[in-house]
Amino acid sequence: MSRRVSLPSRLYLVSFPNSTRSNLDLTNEIFKATDKTDILCSLVSTDFSKVFDRVNHNVAIQRLIDLGLRPSITSWIVDFLRNRQQAVRYHGALSEKITVTCGLPQIPVKWLELKSKLQDMYKEGRRYCSLQEVMEAIGSPPKTTTTEENAISILTFWHLCGDIIYFPVQNLRNFVILEPQWFVDVCKTIITIPQYRDREVKDEWDRLQETGELRDHLIDYVWSHREEALRYNLMEHKQELLDMMEKFDLVLRCHGRSEEETGPKCDVAGEATYFVPSLLTSVKDEKKLYPPGTTCSKPIFVVFDGKFCPVGQYHRMVISSMRRYLSVKPQLAYASCAKFITSNIKRQTFILTKEKFFLKVGLVSSVKDEESCFSHGPSVREGLEEDLTDIINKWVPGIRYKWCVRCGCEGHREKEDADSFLLIEDLSATEHFKSGEIVCETYAPATTTVKEAGLSDWFRNPVPQTAEETLAYPGSLPTVSQDYFHLVVREVCPRWRELAFRLNLSPANVEEIDERHRGEPRKCCRAVCDRWVQLNGSSATVEVLKDALMSIGEVPTAENIDE
């Protein structure tokens, strides 16, 4: 028996470097389609690169669009083919140029010459070179571009071909690795090879193996003692090598020197610390995550479209949370979950877990008061939302996700369906709070209550509190606290640093906010307010905010905040 397998449109035509992910997705779809023994699956693949040699470019592009080609890739191909002209040279005579609608340009001779020169450098014992050396090797560029732009274009091409390693970003644009295998050997000195683990730094190796935390001191020791084995002084370009390892997700910077800095950030003795995902272990002691005497919230989920969550997404989320809560230690990170303390009183934490195609977030608290037990939930979710946006835009553009809670309707309870998710957004959450129920998408009109879903643990309830509740908890932030923050941002944003220090944010927190938002006063001021709530939970009261405003001379703004 055979049948036709309909593959999701997202599998069609992805650009480098996402081809590995595409192949994995494709293989997964085929395995699911052939899960039963009576089904035969035939796969037909078409190489569209050959089409462009024989078919009109406009026709080929339209066909790719019909198949679901991403707009970002379409525009790249169109730009590559636009205004292509060719001329014929015969015995020194050059014909007039004509516009071509078929065929792709071949690799220019100068590009091949550069590749040959780079190979000669490697044979002479060089392992890397500078952008300036490349520009000198190329010579004069075409009239329509600069020497540097021309060099970067050629280097990027050979990088995509796998012949060299080059990234045209600010901190790596002047560093070209001539042989990828040499870079792999450099990575082995830290990540995989036991022979490099000298007894003199045993404690550092043990920490790396047990926690995945790589200290700057260990890097210095290993690389300064491996100069002869690798036939090169790695310390000469230490930071470039580490930055390049970060590009491949081999190490991720927790704190210390940032990409745009030349000196260390505020940290313990200024030492940079890195995170090595491949060395993280599984949880050996559950009590470290869920200590006796603590209470756990209902979880919330980050569900990715297409049931695909890159492992690197989890690791970068862990790093972002480590940076966000840098002043509160200790944090715990494992291969598939991580725990973060959110306030200086250390009574409220959250746990981030990688499960299948989604991330699960749960709150843990030792606060006995039921109303303020999980008061840190909304701020945790908002912080994770900010980190998700930054990570996706920078590393995996195009991937989509949604916030969900688990459905507790009778239909799902009977089936014990662990993946029964309900989409929740800020606007829909308000409506759910008003009605007190959420309608199940699978078994409508069946419902699950707001309490069963744990909605109030993660979203601010806009429904007015009763007079009795208001009197019982006078020190908690009112549900309209976001309006207060809007007022503070509007009136105080130029003095956001002063406000941050008056709210007892650490210098590391202030610098991290400045770096994340590139010094934009309004964004930085709002981030200060959010970070203050995240670190202090229920202790972040209106009265404290007003005192901080008055202490920096913003009396009118403080007076406009009415409890």
TrEMBL record:
In terms of SUPFAM superfamilies, this protein maps to: DEATH domain (SSF47986)
Picking any one GO biological process from the record gives:
signal transduction
Keyword flag Membrane:
no
Which residue intervals define the domain Death in the entry? Answer: 495-563
Looking at the record's lineage, which domain of life comes first?
A: Eukaryota
Name the InterPro entries for this protein. Answer: COR-A, DEATH-like_dom_sf, Death_dom, WH-like_DNA-bd_sf
Q: Name one Pfam family in it.
A: Death
Q: Is Nuclease there in the keyword field?
A: no
State what protein this is by name: Uncharacterized protein LOC118418240
Organism the protein comes from: Branchiostoma floridae
Q: Which gene encodes it?
A: LOC118418240
